Amino acid sequence: MTIARSRDLAALSAEPLFAVNHEQRIVAWNGAAADLFGNERSDVLGRFCYELVEGRNGSGHRVCREGCAVMASATHGKAMPPMVVRTTGSDGSVTLDISTIVIYASDGVGSVLHLCRPANAGATDGDDRPRLTSREQQVLRCLCEGDISSASIARRLGISPSTARNEVQRLLEKLGAHSRGEVIALAYRDNLLT
């Protein structure tokens, strides 16, 4: 069995699949992706994924952007959990579960594959709010109750300041926020505290 070249990877899935390189340019796009998004392979190869997909989280913030959380995680050798993303497909607005697979080359990120599936009803607890883990809920509660610094979150949760900083960063990425203040505003606006 031979390993498929990156431009051939999309042919290996019956589900919508596209791949991007380290610059976030689309290098593979299968027929199911063409059907889902309404763009043919020849029209998307070489384009930036974030300009084409324009995915947003449940709060309406763009998660598909230059230097997105997926690429940042891939660059740092971390796996990105599946995400629920709203975008525009060929039939209008669509909510997708997107799983990513990173293929590394000898000099870093080779390709990042995005496997897209229609989101099931339970993916966001029946609405468009992002589903937060219990730890993310704890960190969010700390922020909303005035524990803004990593040191104060660490003391309150009994974790190290670096772990607290990492937890806050993951929360920012998941919510598509750029600051701790924006996370707090989103929490109250979208009723994210449970």
Short description:
This protein has 194 residues and is α+β, with helices and mostly antiparallel strands. It has eight helices and five strands; from the N terminus they run ββααααβββαααα. It has a five-stranded antiparallel β-sheet.
In CATH terms, what is the architecture of the largest domain?
A: 2-Layer Sandwich
Count the domains. Answer: 2
Helix content: 25-40%
Count of DSSP helices? 8
Oligomer: single chain
Order of H and E elements: EEHHHHEEEHHHH
What is the terminal separation in angstroms?
Answer: 50 Å
Query: Main sheet, how many strands, which sense, barrel?
Result: 5 strands, antiparallel
CATH superfamily of the largest domain: PAS domain
Q: What's the topology here?
A:
Elements lengths: L16 E4 L5 E4 L1 H7 L3 H4 L4 H5 L15 H7 L7 E7 L2 E14 L2 E11 L15 H11 L5 H8 L3 H15 L4 H10 L5
Helix pairs in contact: 5-7, 6-7
Could you explain how this protein is built, in words?
This protein is an alpha+beta fold. It has 8 helices and 5 strands; from the N terminus they run E-E-H-H-H-H-E-E-E-H-H-H-H. The protein has 2 domains: 119 residues, 2-Layer Sandwich (Beta-Lactamase); 56 residues, Arc Repressor Mutant, subunit A (Orthogonal Bundle). A 5-stranded antiparallel beta sheet has the order 2-1-5-4-3. Strand 4 and strand 5 form a beta hairpin. Helix 5 packs across helix 7 and helix 6 crosses helix 7.
